[in-house]
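In the design runs reported in the main text, the only information available to the sequence generator was the tokenized backbone. The following block is the verbatim input for one such run; it is reproduced so that readers can re-run the procedure and compare outputs position by position.
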């Protein structure tokens, strides 16, 4: 049965500022490397002051994990919808225009609330690792009121980012959206998003997941932490209790995907990474595009790994729109 949307995404709306730093800055500033840390606006301003001399090379970009995935899927050719919350400010206008320019429909067609649109400071170290300090702003009040039930029912997949677990209202909205999707035969995909989400919000993530999701995305660290397993192979067996299918990204080692019947090893694409920000998001977006268009999990994994490898060779969480058609030609 044909539906209007291939993928309905839901997540935080964050305007990213990406800055190159060194490990000593992270250590001296008390920032945990490789993790996403929630901060208040005062702390983010403090960090921006410390980084003032670096800001001349920074770039502003709309982000948020699920948004990056949804925009990637749209660039590949998926029909997509994204639920989020932005304020009536300059960043909010910038964010919604970016979604529209990427061909993504959204829940904003009326007046927006006063407040501050969420912001994420993305710090990239010389080893290409990304470390994020996030001020959610108005995105912290994301609720089921931002969900378009008609669009959700008219979608093949609902995609939820694990970061939704950090807000009480957003977590409740994610649970309600998942329940609505399951009632209407919409498949549910969930990303664990970050090792910190698994470590500190595991119970809330299980509430979002419910009994079982159709597709689960995680990296190796998240898979091991989530299951308590001592190896990726053991974690893969244990994840079958939580998800009908899944993909575990392994960085430079490729990925391991499970299609409901068998585990499939996806070969890596060796590259010289300079920025891993958004790599997992790109993987999920490419993978969801492929499986929502009838491709098998092996093909989806190949496209996702190739796309993520292409992404980490540049700065920023997105690839230019025109590159996606070339990736499809090479991988599918």
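Verbatim output:
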């Amino acid at each position: 049965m044909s539906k209007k949307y291939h993928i309905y995404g839901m997540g935080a709306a964050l305007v990213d500022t990406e800055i190159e730093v060194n490990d000593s800055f992270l250590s001296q500033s008390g920032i945990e490397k490789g993790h996403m840390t929630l901060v208040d606006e005062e702390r983010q301003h403090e960090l921006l002051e410390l980084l003032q001399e670096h800001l001349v090379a920074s770039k502003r970009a709309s982000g948020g994990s699920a948004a990056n995935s949804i925009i990637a899927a749209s660039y590949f050719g998926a029909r997509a919808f994204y639920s989020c919350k932005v304020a009536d400010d300059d960043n909010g206008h910038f964010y919604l225009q970016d979604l529209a320019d990427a061909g993504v429909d959204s829940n904003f067609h009326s007046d927006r609330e006063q407040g501050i649109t969420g912001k994420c400071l993305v710090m990239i170290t010389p080893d290409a690792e990304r470390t994020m300090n996030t001020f959610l702003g108005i995105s912290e009040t994301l609720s089921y009121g931002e969900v378009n039930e008609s669009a959700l029912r008219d979608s093949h997949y609902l995609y939820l980012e694990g970061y939704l677990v950090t807000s009480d209202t957003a977590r409740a909205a994610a649970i309600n959206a998942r329940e609505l999707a399951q009632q209407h035969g919409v498949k549910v995909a969930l990303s664990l998003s970050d090792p910190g989400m698994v470590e500190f919000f595991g119970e809330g993530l299980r509430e979002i997941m419910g009994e079982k999701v159709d597709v689960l995305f995680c990296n190796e660290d998240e898979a091991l932490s989530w299951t308590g397993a001592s190896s990726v192979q053991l974690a893969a067996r244990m994840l079958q209790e939580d998800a009908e299918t899944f993909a575990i990204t392994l960085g430079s080692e490729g990925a391991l995907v499970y299609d409901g019947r068998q585990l499939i090893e996806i070969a890596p694409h060796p590259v010289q990474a300079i920025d891993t920000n958004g790599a997992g998001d790109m993987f999920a977006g490419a993978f969801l595009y492929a499986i929502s268009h009838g491709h098998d999990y092996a093909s989806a994994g190949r496209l996702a790994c190739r796309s993520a490898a292409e992404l980490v060779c540049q700065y920023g969480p997105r690839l230019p729109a025109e590159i996606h058609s070339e990736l499809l030609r090479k991988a599918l």
